[in-house]
């Protein structure tokens, strides 16, 4: 049967983190019957290892679900999964550009939170049909009427339309498909006589090359046709088109409105750009589609391979990862202590950690990362202005007339009893309270301006802990403000290690220097000589620790007996060795480089 575009629905599920998107997606997949119960592994859409371990969605994934509706017709419902963490709102906007509708999921025990609102605004920007869904109604703490009130008041949606479900037990989930068919419009375009599609993602397959994920807006596409990317005019012959149904399902043809993939022997990774328009040489469209909102990296760090001869591998791994993570940016960099590497830009600290973990696990390169930094604006005494994101670029303080740092506007939604705690944490992180308002009788939205540099560290974790998990947070960048910055250096065994330097507010420098020196003392193994570790601002030493000389037999403290424990210890030591970097005459383990950022 040939698919009619009237029978296609493209939708996303948007929600605050942990409100149950992945669980609901799994349920919908299960209900559609595209895979057997036996193959239904837990949390299918969160397939990346890191996602499973951390229980958060990072990459959006697509799945096409067949559904026979009450009108007897078969529909193809394309679900585009979206991540929930603030760092990844860029991925959300990409997914939404390919949809006509969205389910907005609200946890019945948590209610509307900061990212529920932020994601709703994104969906409205894309003119999507929005269907409210209240999840976790099985929980004893579920308060359905309260959640409905918030859907009316905070989101401005009709709560009578809300579908009540438990993604966990499956209650109510079967109603969702029918409502999607009725409330979300089919794709509108399609018959303009040319071919136009939007690349919203891509990944690399070792056997097939680059696999492009796309949404077709005009025309249709078959194997053998010649596509052309609008950004660089590169042309390729299509080898396969198909749908994502957990595995790739090749199809004879994909039509306007569909979401799927094509393979075209694309070996040159840089030819595929997320947000690019695809057309065909003989059915060319004259204008590219508006791409996505450009991701703006806010945190920068340099990456170096632990073994210098792994540089080529790192280069290749970054190229491949970039294909799957358009928001990652990088350029060549070098360090006196660590040799050749890359300066990379990230959407936030979680993004940085995810990239590091993916490079290490999926591409097998051991890495050292330098202290993350935001972008600072430096005005020199001669009037020139420069933006820097790397402590090594920090000029001699005598040449500086002014430094400004980026601030964010933060919106924090909490039950009002945590108001005092939130105030305190924000002040600790150099924040300034702007205003607050009650959303309901006991929940409030508090607005702050905070320095981005503070927020990228541990702000989110601290906020969660002082609000017992009830505080939710969303932010946008709000320009630069003047600041009192210093460059904090670390000197190990008399050598300044450039890769450890950090830019930090003067008021925080001493405390950071003290904790960092302690951490370094714990992380750097003893060697055959005494190692002084110092924190310094310019020529002034502000903290100091010493690692005493070596005790050779690491197993000595195991007091005979337990041979397996001894072996474990030796193995651990051996593994540790591989992750060591010689800096001057001192071996520094990979873990030491990030430990200097920890504040407790
Ligand atoms: N009791 C109950 N728990 C649920 C329900 N739906 C999801 N959960 C649980 O809530 C937690 C978060 O669910 P996820 O599906 O991972 O949440 P998510 O919104 O996808 O989170 P991200 O992928 O990080 O954005 C998990 O522990 C789920 O088991 C539900 O209907 N009832």
UniProtKB/TrEMBL annotation:
<dbReference type="InterPro" id="IPR041095">
    <property type="entry name" value="EFG_II"/>
</dbReference>
<comment type="similarity">
    <text>Belongs to the TRAFAC class translation factor GTPase superfamily. Classic translation factor GTPase family. LepA subfamily.</text>
</comment>
<feature type="binding site">
    <location>
        <begin position="18"/>
        <end position="23"/>
    </location>
    <ligand>
        <name>GTP</name>
    </ligand>
</feature>
<dbReference type="InterPro" id="IPR035654">
    <property type="entry name" value="LepA_IV"/>
</dbReference>
<dbReference type="InterPro" id="IPR006297">
    <property type="entry name" value="EF-4"/>
</dbReference>
<keyword id="KW-0342">GTP-binding</keyword>
<keyword id="KW-0547">Nucleotide-binding</keyword>
<dbReference type="GO" id="GO:0043022">
    <property type="term" value="F:ribosome binding"/>
</dbReference>
<keyword id="KW-0997">Cell inner membrane</keyword>
<dbReference type="Pfam" id="PF00679">
    <property type="entry name" value="EFG_C"/>
</dbReference>
<dbReference type="InterPro" id="IPR031157">
    <property type="entry name" value="G_TR_CS"/>
</dbReference>
<protein>
    <recommendedName>
        <fullName>Elongation factor 4</fullName>
        <ecNumber>3.6.5.n1</ecNumber>
    </recommendedName>
</protein>
<dbReference type="Pfam" id="PF06421">
    <property type="entry name" value="LepA_C"/>
</dbReference>
<keyword id="KW-0472">Membrane</keyword>
<dbReference type="InterPro" id="IPR013842">
    <property type="entry name" value="LepA_CTD"/>
</dbReference>
<dbReference type="GO" id="GO:0045727">
    <property type="term" value="P:positive regulation of translation"/>
</dbReference>
<dbReference type="GO" id="GO:0005886">
    <property type="term" value="C:plasma membrane"/>
</dbReference>
<dbReference type="GO" id="GO:0003924">
    <property type="term" value="F:GTPase activity"/>
</dbReference>
<dbReference type="InterPro" id="IPR038363">
    <property type="entry name" value="LepA_C_sf"/>
</dbReference>
<dbReference type="InterPro" id="IPR035647">
    <property type="entry name" value="EFG_III/V"/>
</dbReference>
<feature type="binding site">
    <location>
        <begin position="135"/>
        <end position="138"/>
    </location>
    <ligand>
        <name>GTP</name>
    </ligand>
</feature>
<dbReference type="InterPro" id="IPR005225">
    <property type="entry name" value="Small_GTP-bd"/>
</dbReference>
<keyword id="KW-0378">Hydrolase</keyword>
<dbReference type="InterPro" id="IPR000640">
    <property type="entry name" value="EFG_V-like"/>
</dbReference>
<dbReference type="GO" id="GO:0005525">
    <property type="term" value="F:GTP binding"/>
</dbReference>
<feature type="domain" description="Tr-type G">
    <location>
        <begin position="6"/>
        <end position="188"/>
    </location>
</feature>
<dbReference type="Pfam" id="PF00009">
    <property type="entry name" value="GTP_EFTU"/>
</dbReference>
<keyword id="KW-0648">Protein biosynthesis</keyword>
<dbReference type="GO" id="GO:0003746">
    <property type="term" value="F:translation elongation factor activity"/>
</dbReference>
<dbReference type="InterPro" id="IPR004161">
    <property type="entry name" value="EFTu-like_2"/>
</dbReference>
<comment type="function">
    <text>Required for accurate and efficient protein synthesis under certain stress conditions. May act as a fidelity factor of the translation reaction, by catalyzing a one-codon backward translocation of tRNAs on improperly translocated ribosomes. Back-translocation proceeds from a post-translocation (POST) complex to a pre-translocation (PRE) complex, thus giving elongation factor G a second chance to translocate the tRNAs correctly. Binds to ribosomes in a GTP-dependent manner.</text>
</comment>
<keyword id="KW-1003">Cell membrane</keyword>
<dbReference type="InterPro" id="IPR000795">
    <property type="entry name" value="T_Tr_GTP-bd_dom"/>
</dbReference>
<dbReference type="Pfam" id="PF03144">
    <property type="entry name" value="GTP_EFTU_D2"/>
</dbReference>
<comment type="similarity">
    <text>Belongs to the GTP-binding elongation factor family. LepA subfamily.</text>
</comment>
<dbReference type="InterPro" id="IPR027417">
    <property type="entry name" value="P-loop_NTPase"/>
</dbReference>
<dbReference type="Pfam" id="PF14492">
    <property type="entry name" value="EFG_III"/>
</dbReference>
């Amino acid at each position: 049967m040939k698919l009619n575009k009237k029978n296609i629905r493209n939708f996303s599920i948007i929600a605050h983190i942990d409100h149950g998107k992945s669980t609901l997606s799994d349920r919908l997949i299960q209900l559609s019957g595209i895979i057997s119960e036996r193959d239904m592994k837990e949390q299918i859409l969160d397939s990346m290892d890191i996602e499973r371990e951390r229980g958060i969605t990072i990459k959006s994934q697509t799945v096409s679900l067949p559904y026979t509706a009450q009108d007897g017709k078969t529909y193809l419902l394309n679900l585009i999964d979206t991540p929930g963490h603030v760092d990844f709102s860029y991925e959300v906007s990409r997914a939404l550009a390919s949809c006509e509708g969205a389910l907005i999921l609200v946890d019945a025990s948590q209610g509307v939170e900061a990212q529920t609102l932020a994601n709703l605004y994104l969906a409205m920007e894309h003119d999507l049909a929005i269907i409210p869904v209240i999840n976790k109604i099985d929980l004893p703490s579920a308060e359905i009427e309260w959640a409905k009130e918030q859907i009316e008041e905070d989101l401005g949606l009709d709560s009578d339309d809300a579908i009540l479900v438990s993604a966990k037990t499956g209650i109510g989930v079967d109603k969702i498909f029918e409502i999607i068919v009725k409330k979300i419009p089919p794709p509108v375009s399609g018959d303009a006589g040319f071919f136009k599609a939007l690349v919203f993602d891509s990944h690399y397959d070792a056997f097939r090359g680059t696999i492009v994920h796309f949404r077709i807006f005009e025309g249709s596409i078959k194997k053998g046709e010649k596509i052309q990317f609008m950004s660089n005019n590169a042309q390729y012959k299509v080898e396969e088109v198909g749908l994502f149904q957990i595995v790739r399902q090749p199809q004879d043809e994909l039509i306007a409105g569909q979401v799927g993939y094509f393979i075209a022997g694309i070996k040159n990774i840089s030819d595929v750009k997320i947000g690019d328009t695809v057309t065909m040489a003989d059915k060319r469209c004259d204008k590219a589609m508006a791409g996505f909102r450009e991701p703006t990296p806010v945190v920068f760090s340099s990456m170096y391979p632990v073994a210098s001869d792994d540089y080529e591998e790192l280069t290749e791994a970054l190229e491949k990862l970039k294909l799957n993570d358009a928001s990652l940016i990088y350029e060549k960099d070098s360090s006196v202590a660590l040799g050749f590497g890359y300066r990379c830009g990230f959407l936030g600290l979680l993004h940085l950690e995810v990239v590091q973990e993916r490079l290490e696990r999926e591409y097998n390169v051991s890495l050292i990362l330098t202290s993350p930094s935001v972008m600072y604006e430096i005005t020199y005494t001669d009037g020139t202005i420069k933006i820097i994101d790397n402590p090594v670029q920090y000029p001699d303080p005598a040449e500086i007339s002014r430094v400004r740092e980026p601030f964010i506007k933060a919106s924090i939604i909490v039950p009002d009893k945590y108001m005092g705690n939130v105030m305190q944490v924000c002040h600790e992180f150099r924040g300034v309270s702007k205003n607050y308002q009650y959303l309901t009788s006991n929940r409030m939205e508090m607005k702050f301006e905070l320095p981005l540099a503070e927020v990228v560290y541990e702000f989110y974790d601290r906020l969660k802990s002082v609000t017992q998990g009830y505080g939710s947070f969303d932010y946008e960048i709000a320009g630069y403000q003047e600041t009192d910055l210093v460059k904090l250096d670390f000197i190990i065994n008399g050598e300044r290690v450039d890769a450890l330097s950090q830019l930090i507010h003067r008021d925080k420098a001493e405390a950071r220097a003290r904790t960092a020196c302690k951490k370094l003392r714990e992380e750097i193994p003893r060697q055959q000589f005494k190692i002084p570790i110092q924190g310094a601002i310019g020529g002034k030493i502000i903290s100091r620790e010493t690692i005493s000389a070596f005790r050779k037999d690491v197993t000595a403290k195991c007091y005979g007996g337990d041979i397996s424990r001894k072996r474990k210890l030796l193995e651990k030591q051996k593994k540790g060795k591989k992750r060591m970097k010689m800096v001057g005459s001192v071996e520094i383990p990979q873990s030491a480089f990030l430990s200097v950022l920890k504040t407790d």
